[in-house]
Amino acid sequence: MNVKTSDDCIGVHANHPLSNQFVVIGYKDGAVSAIPKDLFRNGRDEAVEVDSLQIGRCSMLGAGSIVKCGEGVQRLVIGKHVAGGLRLRFLLSDPQSTHTLCAVPFGPPGFGIDDAPAPNYPDTVIHHDVSIGDEAMVLGGSVIASGCVIGVRSIVPPHFRGEPFGIYEGSPARLTGFRFSESVREKLLQLAWWDMPLDWLKQHRKAFLIDLAADEGRALDVLAELQQAKDDAMRATHPAAGPVADAPQPNSNAGEVSYAAPAAQLDAPGIVDPASAAGATPADALTADEAEALVNEFVATLNALSTLGQHQQAEAVARQMTAIFPTLGFGWKALGEALLQQGLADQALAPLQRASELSPSDHAAASPKAPHPEATSTPAQAPGASETAETVVTPRARKQAAAAPQMAETKRLATLFNSGRMAEAAVFAQGVANRYPRHPLGWKMLGLALRAQGQAGEATDQLRKAIELAPEDHEVMLVLAELLKEQGRVAEAEQAYRRLIALKPDHALAHNMLGQTLYWQFRLDEAEAVFRRTLEFAPGNARTLNDLGLMLQLQGRLAEAEDAFHRALAIDPDYDTARSNLLFCLSHSDDVDPDDLTKQHCAFGECLERKLRAQCKRHTNSRNPQRSLRVGFVSGDLFEHAVASFLEPLLVHLARDPGLTLYAYYNHSIVDDVSARLRSHFHNWASVYRMSDTALAEQIRADGIDILIDLSGHTGRNRLRTFARKPAPIQASWLGYPATTGMTTIDYYFADPLFVPPGESERQFSEKIVYLPAVAPFAPSETAPAVNTLPALANRYITFGSFNRLNKLRPAVIGLWAEVLHAVPTARMLVGGLPDEARNMVAEMFAQHRIERDRLVFRARSNLQVYLEQHREVDLCLDTFPYGGGTTTLNAAWMGVPTLTLPGRTAPARQGATIMSGLGLEAFIASDPADFFAKGVHWANDPAQLAELRNGMRERCAASAYFQPEVVVAAMSRALRLMWERWCTGEAPVSFDAQLPADWQQPVAAGA
Predict the structure, then answer these.
(1) Alpha-carbon span 389 to 168, nearest angstrom
(2) Which of these, 965, 1004, 1005, lies nearest to 779 by C-alpha position?
(3) Of 198, 261, 440, 483, which sits 20 to 30 A from 715 (CA to CA)?
(4) How confident is the model at residue 57 (pLDDT cuts 50, 70, 90)?
(5) Buried-state track 743-755, b at ≥16 Cβ within 10 A, e below 16
(6) Same fold, 2-179 and 791-963
(7) Contact of 120 with 138, CB cutoff 8 Å
(8) Per-residue pLDDT reduced to its tens digit, 986-1008
(9) Is residue 949 exposed (0-12), middle (13-18) or buried (19+ Cβ within 10 Å)?
(10) How many CB atoms lie within 10 A of CB 794?
């Protein structure tokens, strides 16, 4: 092979440990490049005599890599710091070309070639610092920029331009690119992963495939973990520097925490033997401190070699340890396990028996009949005090060792945690905490393990102990703050984030989360200040812009919110959450055209589904139209939330359907009494808020779900990315979002004919409409106070009211309400549900229309019972537009208060009209703003009629389908079966009416 490389090359390392598979080229500073032997092959899979490879310093192509070439001169140019995984295939398409890289299909050498000419793609240029994972395909005509990581089983399509510092993942024929925030980019550069050997990259490849753009906090934690793993690897490679001083740091996201065992450097001529510094000096010639340090070095090195599977080298090091410390069982056990892993059971018997004699309590060193089940992941435990008291450890040294966990204990914790054995990890961590109560590691890992098991309260207590012992551990503080936030302890989370910012003033994620905690406490001015301050030192942070947009939207500052979402998407066009928030924001706007809004929703769906189409799989559900169906519900609102008030009455009856089995996938951390009630109606309840979209899709497939129902749409905590993977054969959207998702992978949308009238309105949905008697059944609160007498009769003035969200109070809405108030000069306006600091803003909006402050009554946000009680002050509610009230309108009706509403062309604009019509109160539906004004004045001047309506409102509600869940459930059950029957026969989804025939009789309640 004709090879060219850097000027500082010192030749081939013929005796390198990898030389049996690779041509290993050394450099003056000790670095190496590795090239598989027989890299160049022709179309008949024969070695080619004439070829040329230019490979940069520290570039390594994995075993099985192959370059397919023609019979003439070939030249392959690879930049420095390129790491290629196993079975990487290159194909030079033109015998005279240079720089060109492309690939043959996956498989053994020569598979799929058969002398056929390769596609003649243009040149592909790989710049410096690129990592390529296993089974990657690099096609021609592309530019792979510095800092790219091409992941396992990925394909780089022709003419692709890589993003600098991008990570790419995927399966064959699929590639996804991500852009990073500046802080993540900085940490990637600091990590300098391209300096690490191929084995290390392979060991940690899963970390490189994580979406480091979706969650900056998680990204920084993963990179911190990789940095720690790299540091451990460096220390393990050069153990003369002393034992590892610090315990590995966990990722703050407990669901993704992993520990990396120290790895050996590939670019060294060989593993540095811990005994080399001592010249294999017997233990009795060493001081106690020297002996203790050397034992720790042996333990660290043997753990690293065992984890990496380098058992021959582990055998050599273990033999040195047994020569220096013949009375320590650890060395003998490590030697026996290294021999077992090489299949040398007969040779392993003697050292394992010796280990058993020296360490009789260590039952793992007993029989060499088969490799120890944890030999590769968990090497022998480090020697304990009983082994070493008479040999290498003095009382002073034992006292020092007792202050911190031993390396073997740390490794054991890591192994249990990484393998997902959280219960065992918690037990072991508790033991470590008990043995070393003044060291934070045990408490930290106990907290993380408990959190992973869903024991948030207990985890919080343990992490607080860890913080007390290590008050500057910002990673644990971040986990603690996140736990407090998950439990709804927002004020405590705020203080934790403030402490973290005091430690790390430039921690963008901490600033961002602090802003969120203020936002959740409706301290909106403070939240805005935090978000804007964060953008001063992290201007490219798309997440902060998204959160700023949410805060502005909550205040009704829609134009500013839209701008923030657009800026976030300009930084990260693949930020689907920001795009959903933008769509939700636009649905509140006076200016948006309904057809354009539909197009924007459909554009979202097309973009999302295009990215994830390759992850859709063929459904294997049995096509039996009569069998029992598994129906899954995905929601982040299964707690005291408006969605739950509609879902619960349906579940009570739907769960009794013998043809249905109900599954819940709950995407939130808050669990309350409502959650407990809802859970009782499901066959299976899964908490999925920390699951990735891919993992959730796989879980849904594994559960065999036949029909999957989205309850979020484009609202918060949605899992539309999971639905885009089409994990169930039939998918529908319902309840949480009064508009289309825009996705073709969602087949149906549940509505009623008033909410989505057939025809033009139906065309505003990408889904097919399934018509029910009512959009959903509504369950009024059991603690709702009784309906009182019309307040106007005692007050002698009318009180209008609104309990809608702040972001629905648009200038045009306030303006129309003000016209009614001017026409009824004695009237008052009660505005409820406002955060305290929003009162002045709303009062100013009314003042712009000459409505004095003394005509306004403000009521603060409160619990449900107090909120319902506030309706006793109101005579008539005024609806918002173009996004009308839904739950607020039904709650008001139950409290005897009708709502004057102005419908529009979109589904959100028809919510109030749908409910009023369903209650037989069409007289409260205006045809235009002038009619709204006229009707408002009319009803204000007819308190007697309002009083009569109020007295009979609950009876009117009870007669409506909205308050008859059994009617809606019967139609829902029929709809699910009809949808399923169509799928079984291969028919495409269609819109249909699921209402039962007119002669259907409502079941009579037992005892009636």
Answers:
(1) 52
(2) 965
(3) 483
(4) confident
(5) bebbbbbbbbbbb
(6) no
(7) no
(8) 999 999 999 855 444 444 333 33
(9) buried
(10) 9
307-326 burial: b if 16+ Cβ within 10 Å, else e: bbebbebbbbbbbbbbebbe
The band of 800, judged by pLDDT with boundaries at 50, 70 and 90, is very high
- The class of domain 612-771 in CATH terms is alpha beta
* Fold exhibited by the domain 2-179: UDP N-Acetylglucosamine Acyltransferase; domain 1 (2.160.10)
| Among the listed residues 8, 66, 14, the one whose alpha carbon sits nearest the alpha carbon of residue 37 | 66
**Can you tell me the mean pLDDT for 296-320?**
71
Arch. (CATH architecture) of 274-394: Alpha Horseshoe (1.25)
| Residue 427 confidence (pLDDT) above 60 | yes
Cβ neighbour number for residue 145 with a 10 Å cutoff: 18
Residue ranges per domain, the chain? 2-179, 180-270, 274-394, 612-771, 791-963
Helices (H), 619-692: 642-654, 673-679
Q: CA geometry: angle at 238 spanning 236 and 243, to 5°?
A: 60
Considering only residues 734 and 572, tell me which one the structure prediction assigns the higher pLDDT: 734
CATH of domain 791-963: 3.40.50.2000
Q: Which of 247, 245, 242, 273 is nearest to 261 (CA)?
A: 247
Q: Please, which pLDDT band fits residue 134 given cuts at 50, 70 and 90? A: low
Chain-centre distance for alpha carbon 404? 34
Share of the chain above pLDDT 90, in %: 40
* Residue showing tokens 């204990």: 409
Helix (H, G, I), strand (E, B) or coil at 627: coil
Partners of 205 in beta bridges: none
260 CB-near residues (< 8 Å, 6+ apart): 203, 204, 225, 226, 228, 229, 232, 233, 248, 414
Rg, the chain, Cα only: 34
Whether 914 has a pLDDT exceeding 80, the answer reads yes
Quick one: angle between helices 288-308 and 311-324, nearest 10?
A: 160
Residue whose tokens read 């190496």: 32
91 or 931, higher pLDDT: 931
Residue type, 71: E
Token pair 């289309």 is found at 740
Spatial strand order of the sheet with 768-771 comes to 684-687, 660-666, 629-635, 707-710, 730-733, 748-751, 768-771, 992-993
Q: Which residue matches tokens 């669901």?
A: 255
* Cβ–Cβ < 8 Å for 962, 779: no
CA distances to 625, 714, 881, 885 from 805, rounded to whole Å, are 44, 17, 12, 9
Question: 9: part of which helix (H) or strand (E)?
Answer: strand 9-12
Query: Residue 254 carries which side chain, given as an amino acid letter?
Result: A
Chain CA centroid to CA 989, Å: 31
User: What DSSP string runs through 524-572?
Assistant: HHHHHHHHHHHHHH-TT-HHHHHHHHHHHHHTT-HHHHHHHHHHHHHH-
Residue 748, strand partner residues: 732, 768
DSSP H helical segments within 703-767, as ranges? 720-723
Asked if residues 765 and 740 have their Cβ atoms less than 8 Å apart, the reply is yes
Give the 3-state secondary structure of 849-895.
CCCCHHHEEEEECCCHHHHHHHHHHCCEEECCCCCCCCHHHHHHHHC
Give the chain's end-to-end CA distance (angstroms, integer).
93
Average pLDDT, whole number, for the chain?
78
Q: How confident is the model at residue 623 (pLDDT cuts 50, 70, 90)?
A: very high
Contact 909, 903 (CB under 8 A): yes
Residues 6+ apart with CB under 8 A from 123: 97, 98, 99, 100, 140, 141
DSSP track, 303-338: HHHHHHT-HHHHHHHHHHHHHH-TT-HHHHHHHHHH
Work out the number of other CB atoms within 10 angstroms of the CB of residue 951.
13
Task: Quote the pLDDT of residue 319.
Answer: 82
Over residues 110-127, the pLDDT tens digits come to 223 333 344 455 666 777
